[in-house]
Write a structure and sequence with these properties.
about 280 residues, single chain, about 40% helix
Length: about 280
């Protein structure tokens, strides 16, 4: 996989089961693509930073993300990560950002500090730049919640490319949510990043943001806890179903975010993509 052809260290969202090579025409850090970028870093950290090739690949991928996928919205100045389509022909940029992409804010902070608080970390120029992007993406993911009437984020958001307005824009800002993408599955990626940003920077706003998300969940999805049909209306219609990751991940990260202790020190454990803390070990 490390030696497979890539698009400037970015990979399509599918793999040919026979050849082991990446195939497809879409590059996304959302559905089907996110874990590749997450595990390049986390496997390096979990093996006590001994698998150097993984870190090299991760850093190259981050450079590709910044070069091709990072944009800033015109009115609110929100930094977001879009997608590339038709990469086998003439690549085109799409301002589509899944909620899943919000994992990247925490991942970048983790990669910049290697799990050490910023006051103790020895940050290179690249690390500082990654940490700036981490904070900016964290703010954007917060807006995906706070700009909706319900206070909860949609499954998928699009960002305005110009100052034109449509009836799909939230709060006269830059976030657009088409009708089919307005549901919420109470995903964990944003509160995961709030937790990592809080633990690694000590900035209290990430806790405050997490509390606002928790309050919105309690206000709109409480009862037996359920996914929601449309976060742009109040009250949202409940689906009478809940994803297992809401309990396994979303509530776990919220608990850890509000806990004053250090139950899972990030210098000793790495959270996998399902929020299981795995111990760092030597090969």
């Amino acid at each position: 996989m490390l030696n497979a052809p890539k698009y400037d260290s970015l990979v399509p969202t599918r793999i040919d089961a026979k050849t082991g090579l990446f195939v497809g025409t879409e590059i996304s850090l959302g559905s089907r693509g996110d874990s590749y970028y997450e595990y390049m870093l986390k496997q390096w950290l979990q093996t006590k930073q001994s698998e150097v090739d993984l870190r090299v690949e991760y850093d190259a991928a981050v450079r590709g993300i910044k070069k091709y996928l990072v944009r800033t919205s015109p009115r609110q100045g929100l930094t977001y990560v879009g997608e590339m389509v038709d990469v086998t022909g003439e690549p085109k940029f799409s301002p589509k950002m899944d909620h899943l992409v919000c994992f990247l804010a925490g991942n970048l902070a983790l990669g910049a500090t290697n799990g050490t608080h910023v006051r103790k970390a020895h940050l290179s120029a690249r690390d500082r730049d990654d940490l700036v992007l981490a904070r900016e993406l964290g703010e954007t993911c917060a807006h995906m919640y706070f700009d909706t009437p319900s206070g909860l984020a949609p499954e998928i958001a699009y960002f305005a490319l110009s100052n034109e307005t449509t009836n799909q824009i939230l709060s006269n800002g830059d976030i657009l949510v088409p009708p089919l993408d307005r549901h919420s599955l109470l995903r964990p990626e944003t509160v995961e990043s709030f937790y990592l940003l809080w633990k690694l920077t000590g900035e209290k706003k990430w806790r405050e943001y997490g509390w606002r998300v928790f309050e919105a969940i309690e206000r709109c999805a409480h009862g037996e806890y359920t996914s929601l049909d449309d976060v742009t209306v109040v009250p949202p219609t409940k689906r009478d179903s809940v994803e297992s990751f809401f309990v396994a991940e979303t509530l776990k990260y919220l608990y850890l975010l509000f806990d004053d202790g250090d139950r899972v020190p990030l210098t000793h454990y790495v959270f996998n993509t399902e929020a299981h803390p795995l111990p760092i070990f030597s090969l």
